[in-house]
Amino acid sequence: MSDFEASAARNDFIAAIMERIAPDDAVVELACGSSVRVARAMASMGHRGSMTFVDWRRDALEEHRRALGRAPRFQWVWADALDGRPFEGAWLVIHATLPRLTGIHGELVKPRTPSECARVMDTLRHSGARGAFILALGIERDVVRTGLRALGLDAAERDAVALMGDPPGEVLGRYFAVEFEPTDE
Hints:
By secondary structure, the chain is an alpha/beta fold. The chain has helices at 3-20, 37-44, 58-68, 114-125, 140-150, and strands at residues 27-30, 51-55, 74-78, 91-95, 101-102, 108-109, 131-137, 155-161, 171-179.
């Protein structure tokens, strides 16, 4: 998949998110990296709520901050996306990669099995977040679907399609939208 196709799928993903949230809702982008495409696309589609960008790579966060510019509604957090940080009342946005798990010896590994995905989502559903929007590309879509089902989480699903490209309308992945039940923890 080209960068162009991935960008088109991301914009379609953001449009799907904006259909489900209020313009003032708080959003947390997990594993944001240095790309500001999600923040800019959401702003262009009317989002004006607070946005927090979380990544474990300090250099990526600094590049993200420089590219996006400072604004009172933006906050950058240098942390592991799964460190137990509370995301009280926010919607989580995860695009094209699940947050990485810290494995043996601190090695970062991308969840590649449904049980690893379930572990990630179980951590996130107990974070106080309202829910999560996940863009899963390629084989990751089956991993995400099976991991969510293993936890008994019902997710709305829809194809992620290329808005342009050759051929336009090609299915590139899958969107998942899941709302978390409030927990007593």
